[in-house]
Amino acid sequence: MIVAINQSEAQLSTNFYASSCPNALSTIRNSIRTAISRERRMAASLLRLHFHDCFVHDQSPTITSEKTAPPNDKSARGYELIDAAKARLETICPGVVSCADVLAVAAKEASAYVGGPSWAVKLGRRDSTSAFPDETLTDLPFFKADLQTLIDNFGAKGLSPRDMVALSGAHTLGQAQCFTFRDRIYSNGTDNIIDRGFASTRRRRCPAVGGDDALAAMDLVTPNSFDNNYFRNLVQRKGLLETDQVLFSGGSTDSIVMEYSRSPSRFSADFAAAMIRMGDIQPLTGSAGQIRRICGAVNN
After folding, report:
1. Rounded to an integer, what distance in angstroms lies between the CA atom of residue 199 and that of residue 194?
2. Mean pLDDT within 41-68
3. Which residue has the higher pLDDT, 174 or 136?
4. Which residues are CB-contacts of 30 (< 8 A; sequence separation ≥ 6)?
5. In 57-195, alpha helices (H)
6. pLDDT band at 77 (very low <50, low <70, confident <90, very high)
7. Average pLDDT of the chain, as a whole number
8. Is 172 annotated as a binding residue?
């Protein structure tokens, strides 16, 4: 993985590249904005990449990539955009800016471009020389996880339930595959709280059998804009994934969801703060790791 999770407390700074690569941020910004202008859905993909921390070296005889781990295989997108931004940086300041930092800045630029908040990204991460595919199964939330499991997953990384709910708001963008929400839209069990009209609409694109890869927007209202409609949807029992709707299902996070559904500004502020905290989860710094020349491969 690019951002390691077993390193001592990070030493990051928002002006880390001020002297070594003063045009780093503008180079990444221009590259990412150009890409999203061509395909707006990429904003969601870049936010997800940063969250999953799964942009790793490709499969090799000696190293197994996190790209092909079950939570990411045929799902995570946007690697090529990070590659493109990194290639531009290598022409102006070779060997200086890490792929981990490119990804962190790209996520912020993606949010801002589609109407979401911006924040000052702390920089100075270095890239790992290893991949940890098994940790994608234990550390990344499963799309059918219950509320307490989600709280525990995020808590293990030092993130609070409020951070968790705010970060989940990134699902105001992007799409999900049919197999991830089929059980929710076809189940009539008492544990499957869902608006009937919403379920009926979703069934049109997601058959009861087959069509596992069929896509549906996470937010039917404004699928390409970063706003608080995700939380309004939850209040109306229109969350697409089970892990969405459990945030508003009579549990401890209901009040946070309600707050965000009423206050876009509070959601935006908390999302930005949570993204900063997430970026602080023990990255490699100093002399640890390396600065990859190509994001898809460890340096020789």
Report:
1. 7
2. 61
3. 174
4. none
5. 79-92, 99-113, 133-139, 147-155, 161-168, 178-186
6. confident
7. 86
8. yes
Residue type, 244: D
Any binding-site annotation on 114? no
52 is catalytic: yes
253 labelled as ligand-binding? no
53 marked ligand binding residue? yes
CB 128 within 8 A of CB 2: yes
pTM: 0.86
Q: Is the pLDDT of residue 41 over 80?
A: yes
Q: How is residue 221 written in tokens? A: 């209202």
The Cα–Cα gap between 293 and 290 comes to 9
Are 100 and 126 a contacting pair, CB within 8 Å? Answer: yes
| Axis crossing angle, helix 196-203 with helix 178-186, rounded to the nearest 10 | 140
Task: Please state the length of the chain.
Answer: 300
- Percent of the chain clearing pLDDT 70 (strictly above): 84
Neighbours of 294 (CB within 10 A): 14
Query: Rounded distance, CA 81 to CA 299, Å?
Result: 20
Q: Is 27 annotated as a binding residue?
A: no
Give the largest CA-CA distance in the chain: 60
Check 48, 52, 86, 184 and give the catalytic one. Answer: 52
* Helix, strand, coil percentages in the chain from 3-state DSSP, rounded to 5: 45, 5, 50
